[in-house]
Protein backbone atom coordinates (compact mmCIF):
# COMPACT_ATOMS: atom_id res chain seq x y z
CA UNK A 1 0.00 0.00 0.00
CA UNK A 2 2.87 2.35 0.77
CA UNK A 3 4.72 1.57 -2.46
CA UNK A 4 2.17 3.28 -4.71
CA UNK A 5 3.89 6.66 -4.61
CA UNK A 6 6.25 6.74 -7.58
CA UNK A 7 8.37 9.17 -9.57
CA UNK A 8 8.23 8.65 -13.34
CA UNK A 9 10.73 10.22 -15.76
CA UNK A 10 10.32 11.49 -19.30
CA UNK A 11 12.07 8.39 -20.67
CA UNK A 12 10.08 5.80 -18.75
CA UNK A 13 12.27 5.70 -15.61
CA UNK A 14 10.58 4.79 -12.32
CA UNK A 15 11.66 5.45 -8.75
CA UNK A 16 9.54 4.12 -5.86
CA UNK A 17 9.41 5.96 -2.54
CA UNK A 18 9.96 3.73 0.52
CA UNK A 19 8.22 5.02 3.65
CA UNK A 20 9.13 4.43 7.27
CA UNK A 21 7.64 5.45 10.62
CA UNK A 22 11.12 6.67 11.58
CA UNK A 23 11.50 10.23 10.29
CA UNK A 24 15.28 10.09 10.76
CA UNK A 25 15.68 7.10 8.45
CA UNK A 26 16.95 9.05 5.46
CA UNK A 27 16.07 6.75 2.55
CA UNK A 28 16.52 9.18 -0.36
CA UNK A 29 15.28 9.07 -3.89
CA UNK A 30 17.72 11.15 -5.94
CA UNK A 31 16.96 13.02 -9.15
CA UNK A 32 18.89 15.72 -10.99
CA UNK A 33 17.80 19.34 -11.13
CA UNK A 34 15.85 20.45 -14.23
CA UNK A 35 15.06 16.94 -15.42
CA UNK A 36 11.45 16.12 -16.16
CA UNK A 37 9.79 14.02 -13.46
CA UNK A 38 6.22 13.50 -12.32
CA UNK A 39 4.88 12.20 -9.03
CA UNK A 40 2.22 9.49 -9.28
CA UNK A 41 0.06 9.34 -6.16
CA UNK A 42 -2.84 6.97 -6.87
CA UNK A 43 -3.47 5.45 -3.45
CA UNK A 44 -4.21 4.79 -0.65
CA UNK A 45 -7.49 6.68 -0.70
CA UNK A 46 -8.13 9.28 2.02
CA UNK A 47 -4.38 9.64 2.55
CA UNK A 48 -2.69 13.02 2.64
CA UNK A 49 0.87 13.53 1.41
CA UNK A 50 2.65 16.55 2.92
CA UNK A 51 5.77 17.48 0.92
CA UNK A 52 8.30 20.21 1.69
CA UNK A 53 8.39 22.73 -1.12
CA UNK A 54 4.88 22.30 -2.52
CA UNK A 55 4.73 26.09 -2.57
CA UNK A 56 7.24 25.89 -5.45
CA UNK A 57 4.70 24.18 -7.69
CA UNK A 58 1.76 25.59 -9.61
CA UNK A 59 -1.04 23.07 -9.20
CA UNK A 60 -4.61 23.90 -8.19
CA UNK A 61 -4.94 20.49 -6.51
CA UNK A 62 -2.49 21.45 -3.75
CA UNK A 63 -4.38 21.97 -0.49
CA UNK A 64 -3.48 23.36 2.91
CA UNK A 65 -4.47 22.69 6.51
CA UNK A 66 -3.01 23.54 9.91
CA UNK A 67 -0.13 21.10 9.27
CA UNK A 68 0.93 22.62 5.94
CA UNK A 69 0.55 22.03 2.21
CA UNK A 70 -0.47 18.57 1.01
CA UNK A 71 -1.74 16.62 -1.98
CA UNK A 72 -4.31 13.82 -2.21
CA UNK A 73 -4.44 10.73 -4.47
CA UNK A 74 -5.18 11.63 -8.07
CA UNK A 75 -5.23 9.88 -11.42
CA UNK A 76 -3.33 12.82 -12.91
CA UNK A 77 0.40 12.98 -11.96
CA UNK A 78 1.85 15.95 -10.08
CA UNK A 79 4.61 17.66 -12.10
CA UNK A 80 7.95 18.01 -10.30
CA UNK A 81 9.61 19.74 -13.25
CA UNK A 82 8.39 20.80 -16.68
CA UNK A 83 10.73 22.80 -18.94
CA UNK A 84 7.74 24.76 -20.27
CA UNK A 85 7.12 26.20 -16.79
CA UNK A 86 10.64 26.87 -15.54
CA UNK A 87 9.54 29.26 -12.76
CA UNK A 88 7.54 26.57 -10.93
CA UNK A 89 9.80 23.70 -10.05
CA UNK A 90 11.66 21.94 -7.30
CA UNK A 91 15.18 23.26 -6.72
CA UNK A 92 18.26 21.42 -5.39
CA UNK A 93 17.88 20.34 -1.80
CA UNK A 94 16.37 17.68 0.45
CA UNK A 95 12.59 17.49 0.81
CA UNK A 96 10.62 15.49 3.35
CA UNK A 97 7.51 13.52 2.38
CA UNK A 98 5.05 12.82 5.20
CA UNK A 99 2.21 10.44 4.41
CA UNK A 100 -0.71 10.62 6.86
CA UNK A 101 -3.08 7.65 6.78
CA UNK A 102 -5.60 6.78 9.53
CA UNK A 103 -3.73 9.05 12.00
CA UNK A 104 -0.48 7.18 11.28
CA UNK A 105 2.55 9.02 9.88
CA UNK A 106 5.11 7.62 7.45
CA UNK A 107 8.18 9.40 6.10
CA UNK A 108 10.39 9.37 3.05
CA UNK A 109 12.80 11.81 1.38
CA UNK A 110 13.47 13.32 -2.05
CA UNK A 111 16.91 14.69 -2.87
CA UNK A 112 17.39 16.92 -5.91
CA UNK A 113 21.00 17.24 -7.02
CA UNK A 114 22.23 20.53 -8.45
CA UNK A 115 23.55 20.68 -11.97
CA UNK A 116 25.88 23.63 -11.52
CA UNK A 117 27.08 23.59 -7.90
CA UNK A 118 28.55 20.66 -6.02
CA UNK A 119 27.39 19.05 -2.78
CA UNK A 120 30.54 20.41 -1.13
CA UNK A 121 29.60 23.93 -2.19
CA UNK A 122 26.12 23.51 -0.71
CA UNK A 123 27.66 22.34 2.58
CA UNK A 124 30.03 25.31 2.49
CA UNK A 125 27.11 27.69 2.00
CA UNK A 126 25.27 26.20 5.00
CA UNK A 127 28.40 26.55 7.13
CA UNK A 128 28.90 30.09 5.90
CA UNK A 129 25.36 31.04 6.92
CA UNK A 130 25.71 29.51 10.38
CA UNK A 131 29.15 31.03 10.99
CA UNK A 132 28.03 34.43 9.71
CA UNK A 133 24.95 34.51 11.93
CA UNK A 134 27.04 33.52 14.95
CA UNK A 135 29.80 35.97 14.10
CA UNK A 136 27.52 38.94 13.44
CA UNK A 137 25.50 38.25 16.57
CA UNK A 138 28.70 37.93 18.61
CA UNK A 139 30.00 41.19 17.13
CA UNK A 140 26.80 42.97 18.15
CA UNK A 141 26.93 41.43 21.62
CA UNK A 142 30.51 42.67 21.91
CA UNK A 143 29.55 46.21 21.02
CA UNK A 144 26.96 46.37 23.79
CA UNK A 145 28.71 44.20 26.39
CA UNK A 146 32.32 45.34 26.21
CA UNK A 147 35.49 45.20 24.17
CA UNK A 148 35.38 41.96 22.29
CA UNK A 149 36.78 41.82 18.80
CA UNK A 150 36.13 39.25 16.11
CA UNK A 151 38.83 36.71 16.97
CA UNK A 152 37.16 33.70 15.37
CA UNK A 153 40.24 32.46 13.43
CA UNK A 154 42.19 31.88 16.69
CA UNK A 155 39.75 31.64 19.58
CA UNK A 156 36.97 29.08 19.67
CA UNK A 157 33.35 30.09 20.06
CA UNK A 158 33.47 28.87 23.69
CA UNK A 159 36.56 30.98 24.43
CA UNK A 160 34.97 34.05 22.87
CA UNK A 161 31.89 33.58 25.00
CA UNK A 162 34.09 33.03 28.06
CA UNK A 163 35.88 36.29 27.30
CA UNK A 164 32.54 38.06 27.09
CA UNK A 165 31.54 36.61 30.48
CA UNK A 166 34.83 37.73 32.01
CA UNK A 167 34.19 41.26 30.76
CA UNK A 168 30.74 41.27 32.33
CA UNK A 169 31.93 39.89 35.69
CA UNK A 170 35.18 41.84 36.12
CA UNK A 171 33.92 44.31 38.75
CA UNK A 172 32.28 41.60 40.88
CA UNK A 173 35.36 39.43 40.45
CA UNK A 174 37.67 42.11 41.86
CA UNK A 175 35.42 42.70 44.88
CA UNK A 176 35.04 39.01 45.68
CA UNK A 177 38.77 38.38 45.32
CA UNK A 178 39.42 41.07 47.91
CA UNK A 179 36.86 39.69 50.36
CA UNK A 180 37.98 36.07 49.95
CA UNK A 181 41.61 37.02 50.38
CA UNK A 182 41.07 39.03 53.55
CA UNK A 183 38.31 37.03 55.15
CA UNK A 184 38.19 33.37 54.11
CA UNK A 185 35.84 30.94 55.75
CA UNK A 186 37.23 28.45 58.21
CA UNK A 187 35.89 25.66 60.36
CA UNK A 188 36.51 24.39 63.88
CA UNK A 189 37.71 20.84 63.81
CA UNK A 190 38.08 18.41 66.73
CA UNK A 191 41.12 16.23 67.31
CA UNK A 192 42.63 14.07 70.10
CA UNK A 193 46.11 14.32 71.56
CA UNK A 194 48.17 13.35 74.62
CA UNK A 195 48.39 16.23 77.03
CA UNK A 196 48.88 17.05 80.70
CA UNK A 197 46.04 19.57 80.69
CA UNK A 198 42.46 18.40 80.78
CA UNK A 199 40.53 21.07 78.90
CA UNK A 200 37.45 18.93 78.35
CA UNK A 201 35.88 15.96 80.17
CA UNK A 202 37.07 12.55 79.05
CA UNK A 203 34.80 10.79 76.58
CA UNK A 204 34.58 7.14 75.43
CA UNK A 205 37.32 7.55 72.82
CA UNK A 206 39.67 8.95 75.44
CA UNK A 207 38.92 6.18 77.94
CA UNK A 208 39.37 3.39 75.39
CA UNK A 209 42.66 4.85 74.13
CA UNK A 210 44.03 5.36 77.62
CA UNK A 211 43.06 1.82 78.68
CA UNK A 212 45.22 0.40 75.89
CA UNK A 213 48.22 2.55 76.66
CA UNK A 214 49.37 3.29 80.15
CA UNK A 215 50.92 6.72 80.32
CA UNK A 216 51.97 8.63 83.43
CA UNK A 217 50.95 12.23 83.96
CA UNK A 218 49.29 12.53 80.54
CA UNK A 219 45.79 11.99 79.26
CA UNK A 220 44.30 11.40 75.84
CA UNK A 221 42.03 14.42 75.56
CA UNK A 222 39.83 15.94 72.91
CA UNK A 223 40.63 19.47 71.69
CA UNK A 224 39.57 21.88 68.94
CA UNK A 225 41.43 23.93 66.33
CA UNK A 226 40.75 26.25 63.43
CA UNK A 227 41.25 24.62 60.01
CA UNK A 228 41.11 25.99 56.49
CA UNK A 229 41.04 22.52 54.93
CA UNK A 230 37.26 22.50 54.86
CA UNK A 231 34.94 21.17 52.15
CA UNK A 232 33.97 24.68 51.12
CA UNK A 233 37.60 25.79 50.74
CA UNK A 234 38.42 22.62 48.78
CA UNK A 235 35.57 23.48 46.41
CA UNK A 236 36.73 27.11 46.24
CA UNK A 237 40.28 26.05 45.34
CA UNK A 238 39.03 23.78 42.57
CA UNK A 239 36.87 26.60 41.17
CA UNK A 240 39.73 29.11 41.25
CA UNK A 241 42.11 26.67 39.55
CA UNK A 242 39.52 25.97 36.85
CA UNK A 243 38.97 29.70 36.19
CA UNK A 244 42.75 30.19 36.07
CA UNK A 245 43.11 27.42 33.47
CA UNK A 246 40.45 28.97 31.20
CA UNK A 247 41.95 32.45 31.59
CA UNK A 248 45.39 31.08 30.69
CA UNK A 249 44.04 29.46 27.51
CA UNK A 250 42.36 32.71 26.44
CA UNK A 251 45.56 34.67 27.12
CA UNK A 252 47.55 32.24 24.96
CA UNK A 253 45.09 32.76 22.08
CA UNK A 254 45.11 36.55 22.43
CA UNK A 255 48.90 36.65 22.41
CA UNK A 256 48.93 34.72 19.12
CA UNK A 257 46.54 37.28 17.63
CA UNK A 258 48.60 40.17 19.00
CA UNK A 259 51.67 38.80 17.23
CA UNK A 260 49.78 38.96 13.92
CA UNK A 261 47.80 42.14 14.40
CA UNK A 262 47.73 44.40 17.44
CA UNK A 263 44.66 46.60 17.93
CA UNK A 264 43.30 48.62 20.82
CA UNK A 265 40.60 45.99 21.41
CA UNK A 266 43.16 43.18 21.64
CA UNK A 267 45.26 45.22 24.06
CA UNK A 268 42.22 45.96 26.23
CA UNK A 269 41.29 42.29 26.34
CA UNK A 270 44.83 41.28 27.23
CA UNK A 271 44.92 43.84 30.05
CA UNK A 272 41.64 42.43 31.40
CA UNK A 273 42.80 38.81 31.14
CA UNK A 274 46.11 39.60 32.83
CA UNK A 275 44.30 41.30 35.69
CA UNK A 276 42.26 38.15 36.17
CA UNK A 277 45.39 36.05 36.03
CA UNK A 278 47.21 38.25 38.56
CA UNK A 279 44.32 38.20 41.03
CA UNK A 280 43.89 34.45 40.71
CA UNK A 281 47.63 33.83 41.17
CA UNK A 282 47.59 35.98 44.28
CA UNK A 283 44.75 33.89 45.74
CA UNK A 284 46.30 30.56 44.78
CA UNK A 285 49.56 31.52 46.52
CA UNK A 286 47.93 32.62 49.76
CA UNK A 287 49.33 30.41 52.53
CA UNK A 288 45.94 29.35 53.81
CA UNK A 289 44.76 28.26 50.34
CA UNK A 290 48.03 26.49 49.50
CA UNK A 291 47.44 24.31 52.57
CA UNK A 292 43.98 23.31 51.32
CA UNK A 293 43.97 19.97 49.55
CA UNK A 294 42.68 20.15 46.00
CA UNK A 295 40.68 16.94 46.13
CA UNK A 296 37.01 17.07 45.23
CA UNK A 297 35.03 16.72 48.38
CA UNK A 298 31.29 17.14 48.15
CA UNK A 299 30.67 16.50 51.84
CA UNK A 300 28.56 19.33 53.24
CA UNK A 301 29.34 21.19 50.03
CA UNK A 302 26.04 23.05 50.03
CA UNK A 303 27.00 24.83 53.23
CA UNK A 304 29.80 26.56 51.34
CA UNK A 305 27.40 28.38 49.07
CA UNK A 306 25.47 30.06 51.81
CA UNK A 307 28.28 32.61 51.48
CA UNK A 308 27.81 34.89 48.46
CA UNK A 309 31.58 35.23 47.91
CA UNK A 310 32.04 31.49 47.54
CA UNK A 311 28.88 31.26 45.48
CA UNK A 312 30.27 33.83 43.01
CA UNK A 313 33.35 31.70 42.23
CA UNK A 314 31.25 28.57 41.93
CA UNK A 315 28.86 30.24 39.46
CA UNK A 316 31.66 31.83 37.44
CA UNK A 317 33.55 28.54 37.14
CA UNK A 318 30.38 26.70 36.16
CA UNK A 319 29.46 29.26 33.49
CA UNK A 320 32.92 29.21 31.95
CA UNK A 321 32.99 25.41 31.91
CA UNK A 322 29.46 24.87 30.61
CA UNK A 323 29.26 27.47 27.85
CA UNK A 324 27.99 24.77 25.49
CA UNK A 325 24.79 24.75 27.59
CA UNK A 326 24.23 28.34 26.46
CA UNK A 327 25.44 27.85 22.90
CA UNK A 328 23.16 29.69 20.53
CA UNK A 329 20.59 27.36 19.08
CA UNK A 330 19.31 27.93 15.60
CA UNK A 331 15.55 28.05 15.21
CA UNK A 332 14.15 24.91 13.56
CA UNK A 333 13.30 27.05 10.56
CA UNK A 334 17.01 27.12 9.68
CA UNK A 335 16.85 23.38 9.05
CA UNK A 336 14.28 24.20 6.38
CA UNK A 337 16.72 26.69 4.81
CA UNK A 338 19.38 23.97 4.74
CA UNK A 339 17.11 21.77 2.60
CA UNK A 340 15.72 24.46 0.31
CA UNK A 341 18.74 25.56 -1.72
CA UNK A 342 16.96 28.59 -3.20
CA UNK A 343 16.07 29.89 0.27
CA UNK A 344 19.52 29.02 1.56
CA UNK A 345 21.05 31.15 -1.19
CA UNK A 346 18.57 33.93 -0.41
CA UNK A 347 19.44 34.09 3.30
CA UNK A 348 23.14 33.74 2.45
CA UNK A 349 22.82 36.70 0.09
CA UNK A 350 21.13 38.79 2.79
CA UNK A 351 23.95 37.95 5.19
CA UNK A 352 26.54 38.93 2.59
CA UNK A 353 24.87 42.35 2.31
CA UNK A 354 24.96 42.72 6.13
CA UNK A 355 28.63 41.71 6.24
CA UNK A 356 29.52 44.04 3.36
CA UNK A 357 27.91 47.02 5.12
CA UNK A 358 29.87 46.17 8.27
CA UNK A 359 33.06 46.22 6.18
CA UNK A 360 32.01 49.66 4.93
CA UNK A 361 32.02 50.80 8.59
CA UNK A 362 28.25 50.80 9.10
CA UNK A 363 27.16 49.59 12.54
CA UNK A 364 24.01 47.49 13.17
CA UNK A 365 21.68 48.96 15.79
CA UNK A 366 18.67 46.67 15.93
CA UNK A 367 16.62 44.07 14.11
CA UNK A 368 16.79 40.27 13.74
CA UNK A 369 19.90 38.86 15.48
CA UNK A 370 20.79 42.40 16.55
CA UNK A 371 17.84 42.69 18.93
CA UNK A 372 18.48 42.41 22.68
CA UNK A 373 21.41 40.83 24.44
CA UNK A 374 20.67 37.14 24.17
CA UNK A 375 22.04 34.74 21.59
CA UNK A 376 18.84 33.14 20.37
CA UNK A 377 19.00 32.96 16.60
CA UNK A 378 15.53 33.68 15.30
CA UNK A 379 14.61 32.70 11.72
CA UNK A 380 14.99 35.26 8.98
CA UNK A 381 11.33 36.00 8.39
CA UNK A 382 9.82 38.02 5.53
CA UNK A 383 9.71 41.67 6.55
CA UNK A 384 12.84 41.47 8.72
CA UNK A 385 14.55 44.87 8.97
CA UNK A 386 18.07 45.57 10.25
CA UNK A 387 18.87 49.19 11.06
CA UNK A 388 22.42 50.51 10.50
CA UNK A 389 24.09 53.86 11.16
CA UNK A 390 27.30 55.11 9.60
CA UNK A 391 28.99 57.77 7.55
CA UNK A 392 29.34 58.22 3.81
CA UNK A 393 32.69 59.09 2.23
CA UNK A 394 32.07 62.82 2.83
CA UNK A 395 31.58 62.16 6.56
CA UNK A 396 27.83 62.69 6.32
CA UNK A 397 25.84 60.57 8.81
CA UNK A 398 23.18 58.32 7.30
CA UNK A 399 20.79 55.64 8.46
CA UNK A 400 20.22 52.44 6.50
CA UNK A 401 17.31 50.03 6.75
CA UNK A 402 18.16 46.67 5.22
CA UNK A 403 14.92 44.81 4.57
CA UNK A 404 14.48 41.16 3.68
CA UNK A 405 11.58 39.93 1.50
CA UNK A 406 9.41 42.87 2.54
CA UNK A 407 6.37 43.60 0.38
CA UNK A 408 5.83 47.20 -0.74
CA UNK A 409 2.08 47.52 -0.30
CA UNK A 410 1.37 51.22 -1.05
CA UNK A 411 -0.16 51.77 -4.49
CA UNK A 412 0.32 55.55 -4.62
CA UNK A 413 2.16 58.39 -2.88
CA UNK A 414 -0.67 59.19 -0.48
CA UNK A 415 -0.39 55.73 1.11
CA UNK A 416 3.30 56.13 2.00
CA UNK A 417 4.86 57.19 5.29
CA UNK A 418 8.36 57.71 6.65
CA UNK A 419 8.21 54.14 7.99
CA UNK A 420 7.03 52.78 4.62
CA UNK A 421 8.21 55.40 2.10
CA UNK A 422 7.90 53.40 -1.14
CA UNK A 423 4.97 52.67 -3.44
CA UNK A 424 4.87 50.48 -6.52
CA UNK A 425 3.43 50.98 -9.98
CA UNK A 426 3.66 47.38 -11.21
CA UNK A 427 2.92 43.86 -10.01
CA UNK A 428 6.49 43.21 -8.86
CA UNK A 429 6.67 44.67 -5.37
CA UNK A 430 8.73 42.27 -3.28
CA UNK A 431 12.50 42.33 -3.88
CA UNK A 432 14.55 39.90 -1.82
CA UNK A 433 16.73 42.62 -0.31
CA UNK A 434 16.52 46.38 -0.31
CA UNK A 435 18.77 48.93 1.36
CA UNK A 436 16.74 52.04 2.17
CA UNK A 437 18.86 55.17 2.73
CA UNK A 438 17.77 57.85 5.21
CA UNK A 439 19.47 61.07 6.27
CA UNK A 440 20.53 61.83 9.85
CA UNK A 441 16.95 62.98 10.60
CA UNK A 442 15.52 59.66 9.34
CA UNK A 443 14.04 61.20 6.19
CA UNK A 444 14.00 58.71 3.31
CA UNK A 445 16.20 59.46 0.28
CA UNK A 446 16.68 56.49 -2.06
CA UNK A 447 16.79 52.71 -2.16
CA UNK A 448 19.24 50.12 -3.47
CA UNK A 449 17.51 46.92 -4.62
CA UNK A 450 19.14 43.47 -4.66
CA UNK A 451 17.58 40.22 -5.75
CA UNK A 452 18.99 36.71 -5.35
CA UNK A 453 18.60 34.31 -8.26
CA UNK A 454 19.65 30.72 -7.85
CA UNK A 455 20.22 30.11 -11.55
CA UNK A 456 22.60 30.78 -14.42
CA UNK A 457 23.04 34.34 -15.60
CA UNK A 458 21.78 33.54 -19.11
CA UNK A 459 18.54 32.24 -17.58
CA UNK A 460 18.10 35.39 -15.49
CA UNK A 461 18.48 37.96 -18.25
CA UNK A 462 15.52 36.94 -20.36
CA UNK A 463 12.23 38.76 -20.85
CA UNK A 464 10.49 35.43 -21.43
CA UNK A 465 8.42 33.66 -18.79
CA UNK A 466 11.41 31.61 -17.71
CA UNK A 467 13.60 34.69 -17.20
CA UNK A 468 13.64 37.45 -14.59
CA UNK A 469 14.34 40.60 -16.55
CA UNK A 470 10.73 41.79 -16.43
CA UNK A 471 10.83 41.56 -12.65
CA UNK A 472 14.23 43.25 -12.31
CA UNK A 473 13.45 46.14 -14.67
CA UNK A 474 10.14 46.60 -12.84
CA UNK A 475 12.08 47.08 -9.61
CA UNK A 476 14.30 49.60 -11.37
CA UNK A 477 11.54 51.66 -12.99
CA UNK A 478 8.39 51.14 -10.94
CA UNK A 479 9.33 51.78 -7.29
CA UNK A 480 8.56 55.37 -6.31
CA UNK A 481 8.58 57.61 -3.26
CA UNK A 482 7.33 61.14 -2.58
CA UNK A 483 10.26 61.54 -0.19
CA UNK A 484 12.44 63.36 0.57
CA UNK A 485 10.41 66.23 -0.97
CA UNK A 486 7.27 65.26 0.93
CA UNK A 487 9.01 66.24 4.16
CA UNK A 488 8.93 69.91 5.11
CA UNK A 489 12.74 69.97 5.34
CA UNK A 490 13.15 69.31 1.60
CA UNK A 491 9.84 70.71 0.30
CA UNK A 492 11.50 73.71 -1.36
CA UNK A 493 13.84 71.48 -3.37
CA UNK A 494 11.03 69.90 -5.38
CA UNK A 495 11.13 72.60 -8.01
CA UNK A 496 14.65 71.65 -9.00
CA UNK A 497 14.28 69.68 -12.20
CA UNK A 498 17.36 67.45 -11.87
CA UNK A 499 16.10 65.89 -8.65
CA UNK A 500 12.37 66.49 -8.75
CA UNK A 501 11.83 64.53 -11.96
CA UNK A 502 13.56 61.33 -10.92
CA UNK A 503 11.93 58.39 -12.73
CA UNK A 504 12.00 56.26 -9.56
CA UNK A 505 13.42 56.14 -6.04
CA UNK A 506 15.86 53.36 -6.98
CA UNK A 507 19.56 54.13 -7.18
CA UNK A 508 20.41 50.79 -8.75
CA UNK A 509 19.32 47.17 -9.03
CA UNK A 510 21.76 44.31 -8.58
CA UNK A 511 21.19 40.58 -8.93
CA UNK A 512 23.18 38.07 -6.89
CA UNK A 513 23.74 34.74 -8.63
CA UNK A 514 26.06 31.74 -8.04
CA UNK A 515 27.89 31.97 -11.32
CA UNK A 516 30.59 33.82 -13.21
CA UNK A 517 30.62 36.75 -15.60
CA UNK A 518 33.28 38.19 -17.88
CA UNK A 519 33.93 41.72 -16.69
CA UNK A 520 33.92 44.37 -19.41
CA UNK A 521 32.83 47.95 -19.92
CA UNK A 522 29.60 46.98 -21.69
CA UNK A 523 28.29 44.66 -18.98
CA UNK A 524 25.83 47.11 -17.42
CA UNK A 525 24.45 48.34 -20.75
CA UNK A 526 24.25 44.81 -22.08
CA UNK A 527 21.98 43.78 -19.24
CA UNK A 528 19.57 46.73 -19.28
CA UNK A 529 21.26 48.55 -16.39
CA UNK A 530 20.66 45.61 -14.07
CA UNK A 531 24.02 44.87 -12.51
CA UNK A 532 25.02 41.19 -12.27
CA UNK A 533 26.87 40.38 -9.02
CA UNK A 534 28.45 36.89 -9.06
CA UNK A 535 28.52 35.77 -5.44
CA UNK A 536 29.18 32.37 -3.91
CA UNK A 537 31.10 31.10 -0.82
CA UNK A 538 33.74 29.02 -2.59
CA UNK A 539 34.52 31.59 -5.25
CA UNK A 540 36.68 34.64 -4.85
CA UNK A 541 34.12 37.17 -6.04
CA UNK A 542 32.73 38.76 -2.88
CA UNK A 543 34.32 42.11 -3.77
CA UNK A 544 31.70 42.48 -6.50
CA UNK A 545 28.97 43.00 -3.89
CA UNK A 546 31.18 45.26 -1.77
CA UNK A 547 32.03 47.40 -4.80
CA UNK A 548 28.37 47.57 -5.86
CA UNK A 549 27.29 48.89 -2.46
CA UNK A 550 30.25 51.27 -2.17
CA UNK A 551 29.63 52.83 -5.59
CA UNK A 552 25.92 53.31 -4.95
CA UNK A 553 26.54 54.85 -1.53
CA UNK A 554 28.99 57.23 -3.24
CA UNK A 555 26.23 58.08 -5.71
CA UNK A 556 23.94 58.82 -2.78
CA UNK A 557 26.65 61.04 -1.29
CA UNK A 558 26.67 63.06 -4.50
CA UNK A 559 22.90 63.46 -4.30
CA UNK A 560 23.20 64.65 -0.71
CA UNK A 561 25.75 67.23 -1.82
CA UNK A 562 23.36 68.51 -4.50
CA UNK A 563 20.53 68.71 -1.97
CA UNK A 564 22.81 70.55 0.44
CA UNK A 565 23.63 73.17 -2.18
CA UNK A 566 19.95 73.61 -3.04
CA UNK A 567 19.00 74.03 0.61
CA UNK A 568 21.62 76.75 0.99
CA UNK A 569 20.39 78.39 -2.21
CA UNK A 570 16.83 78.64 -0.90
CA UNK A 571 18.02 79.76 2.53
CA UNK A 572 17.35 76.63 4.58
CA UNK A 573 19.53 74.78 7.03
CA UNK A 574 20.31 71.18 6.22
Poorly predicted ranges: 141-153, 497-501
**Number of E strands:** 21
Strand order of the largest sheet: 13-14-15-17-18-20-21
Please tally the helical runs, counting DSSP H or I stretches of 4 or more residues: 15
Report the β-strand fraction as a percent range.
Answer: 15-25%
Report on the structure:
- The protein is of the alpha+beta class and 574 residues long.
- The protein has helices at 119-145, 157-182, 204-212, 231-260, 264-284, 287-290, 301-304, 308-321, 333-339, 341-359, 457-460, 469-477, 497-500, 523-526, 543-569; strands spanning 5-9, 14-16, 28-32, 37-41, 48-51, 63-65, 68-71, 78-79, 93-101, 104-113, 187-195, 219-227, 363-366, 384-391, 397-404, 423-424, 433-438, 444-452, 479-480, 506-513, 530-534.
- A hairpin with a 5-residue loop joins strand 14 and strand 15 (397-404).
- Helix 2 packs across helix 5 and helix 4 (231-260) runs antiparallel to helix 5 (264-284).
- It starts with a strand and ends in a 5-residue tail after the last helix.
Q: Layout of helices and strands, plus pairs?
A:
Blueprint: E1 5-9, E2 14-16, E3 28-32, E4 37-41, E5 48-51, E6 63-65, E7 68-71, E8 78-79, E9 93-101, E10 104-113, H1 119-145, H2 157-182, E11 187-195, H3 204-212, E12 219-227, H4 231-260, H5 264-284, H6 287-290, H7 301-304, H8 308-321, H9 333-339, H10 341-359, E13 363-366, E14 384-391, E15 397-404, E16 423-424, E17 433-438, E18 444-452, H11 457-460, H12 469-477, E19 479-480, H13 497-500, E20 506-513, H14 523-526, E21 530-534, H15 543-569
Parallel strand pairs: 3-10, 18-20, 20-21
Antiparallel strand pairs: 1-2, 1-4, 4-8, 5-7, 5-9, 6-7, 9-10, 11-12, 13-14, 14-15, 15-17, 16-19, 17-18
Helix pairs in contact: 1-10, 2-4, 2-5, 2-8, 4-5, 4-8
Amino acid sequence: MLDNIILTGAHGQKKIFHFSKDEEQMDFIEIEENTEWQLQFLSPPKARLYIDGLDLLDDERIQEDEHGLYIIPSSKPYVIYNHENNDKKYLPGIYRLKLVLNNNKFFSWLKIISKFISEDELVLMRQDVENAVKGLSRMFQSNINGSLSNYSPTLSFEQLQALSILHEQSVKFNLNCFFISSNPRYSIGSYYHWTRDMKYPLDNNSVIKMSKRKEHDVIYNKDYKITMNSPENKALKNNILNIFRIVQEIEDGLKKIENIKSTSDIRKDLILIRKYKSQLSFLINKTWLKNVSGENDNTSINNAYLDSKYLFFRKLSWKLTHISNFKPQFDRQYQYYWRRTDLLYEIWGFLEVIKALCKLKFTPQSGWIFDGRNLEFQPLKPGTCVWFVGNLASGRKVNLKVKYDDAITALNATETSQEQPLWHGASHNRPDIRVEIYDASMIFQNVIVLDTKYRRLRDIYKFSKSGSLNQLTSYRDQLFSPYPFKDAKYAGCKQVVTLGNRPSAVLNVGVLFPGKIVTNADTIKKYNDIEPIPTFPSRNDKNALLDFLRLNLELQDERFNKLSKILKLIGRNE
